[in-house]
Amino acid sequence: MALPLVLHVLLVAAAAAVARAPVAQAWGVEGHYMVCKIAESYLTSEASAAVKGLLPESAGGDLAAVCSWPDTERRQNPWSTPLHFADNPGDCKFSYARDCHGTKGEKDMCVVGGINNYTAALMDSSSPYNRTESLMFLAHFVGDVHQPMHCGRTADLGGNTVLVTWYTNRTNLHKVWDDKVIGTAMNRLYRDDLSTMIGAIKRNLTVAEKNEWEACPSPTTSCADKFAEESAELACPAYVGAEQFSNLEDEYFFKALPVVQIRIAQAGVRLAAILNRIFSGNNNSRLQTI
Ligand SMILES: *[C@@H]1O[C@H](CO)[C@@H](O)[C@H](O)[C@H]1NC(C)=O
Ligand SMILES: *[C@@H]1O[C@H](CO)[C@@H](O)[C@H](O)[C@H]1NC(C)=O
Ligand SMILES: *[C@@H]1O[C@H](CO)[C@@H](O)[C@H](O)[C@H]1NC(C)=O
Ligand SMILES: *[C@@H]1O[C@H](CO)[C@@H](O)[C@H](O)[C@H]1NC(C)=O
Ligand SMILES: *[C@@H]1O[C@H](CO)[C@@H](O)[C@H](O)[C@H]1NC(C)=O
């Protein structure tokens, strides 16, 4: 599309100004809900009871009901904003030492640091951190780290400044991955019913995949590093065909959908594995590191 350069620059600047503020939600509400619903179904009875015991009353006993709480919290208290992502210089890689910091270089302030922080807090009964909030943060960040655009390029704020149309609607590439693909899938394939989509994702899961995803192969890096490395690698092909001002339609949708579905499944399985390890001493060596 041949927009005058000035307009282009203005649009990008406008998008940059609002990005990472309320717009960047990190999987939309539906994505986080699905991740947490899938996780709940794989909890041991001990972990399930412990989780229920920590949930705020508003959750009605359902972890999935509060899995978007950190996005609300962030709007009120921006300190936690950097904990939702871990962008990179554009090399499709995640390196903790290089990429896990806040905008002013604050160490550990990225989504991987957040997962490690709240996992450690929940494992340590003497931690001063609020356990209800630690649980809600952990559940949310394990979702976020699986969304490829949460490990996208720093230069475009993880796709937030890449302005595109999704069929007829103007949006940006980050939001396409947070909720547009999910919304279109719901509408076209799952009768606008979230539980139908969750069921389809779960039925697709094999035992071998589940075992592989729970595994944490290296005793020296945390599992969360691996999740971010995978997302950074998936973000690269996600930028292809999605240049500034592209019109994204069926071709992009059918390329992105399987990735979105598998990342939601992986996030759910891994969140359950982490919570089982925390709350039921499920001491399977595969889950040992985190
Ligand atoms: C760890 O959690 C505490 C309590 O919420 C927070 O103040 C701190 O910034 C967190 N750090 C990271 C890296 O998540
Ligand atoms: C812990 O956090 C929850 C959710 O924000 C809040 O409702 C509760 O009052 C907090 N508990 C304490 C002891 O501060
Ligand atoms: C475009 O936006 C409208 C209004 O929010 C919404 O109803 C519709 O589903 C969207 N279409 C697509 C393809 O996302
Ligand atoms: C099922 O798995 C296939 C192969 O990985 C994938 O293409 C498809 O999108 C998956 N469907 C769902 C609903 O997860
Ligand atoms: C895990 O297993 C080891 C050895 O079997 C044991 O020492 C440790 O206490 C266990 N941890 C938990 C959380 O149950």
Keywords:
P1 Nuclease; 290 residues; three-stranded mixed β-sheet; binds 2-acetamido-2-deoxy-beta-D-glucopyranose; disordered C terminus; mainly alpha; disordered N terminus; globular; 3 strands
Would you give an account of this structure?
The chain is mainly alpha-helical. The protein has one domain (5-279): Orthogonal Bundle (P1 Nuclease), CATH 1.10.575. The chain is 55% helix and 3% strand. It has helices at 5-18, 29-41, 45-54, 69-76, 96-99, 111-123, 131-144, 173-189, 194-203, 207-214, 223-239, 250-280; strands at residues 163-166, 169-172, 247-248. It has a three-stranded mixed β-sheet with strand order 2-1-3. Strand 1 (163-166) and strand 2 (169-172) form a beta hairpin. It binds 2-acetamido-2-deoxy-beta-D-glucopyranose (5 copies). Residues 281, 283 line the site of one 2-acetamido-2-deoxy-beta-D-glucopyranose. One 2-acetamido-2-deoxy-beta-D-glucopyranose (NAG) binds next to helix 9 and helix 12.
- Under CATH, the homologous superfamily reads P1 Nuclease
* Integer tally of domains: 1
The order of strands across the largest sheet is: 2-1-3
Rounded to an integer in angstroms, the radius of gyration calculated over CA atoms is 18 Å
Name the poorly predicted regions. 1-24, 283-290
Helix content range: 40-55%
Report the count of strand segments: 3
The distinct ligands, each listed once, are:
2-acetamido-2-deoxy-beta-D-glucopyranose
The overall pLDDT average reads 89
Largest sheet: 3 strands, mixed
Q: How much strand?
A: under 5%
CATH topology: P1 Nuclease
CATH architecture: Orthogonal Bundle
Query: Separation of termini?
Result: 47 Å
What general form does the structure show?
Answer: globular
What is the highest CATH level, the class? Mainly Alpha
Helix-strand topology string: HHHHHHHEEHHHHEH
Number of helices: 12
Structural class designation: mainly alpha
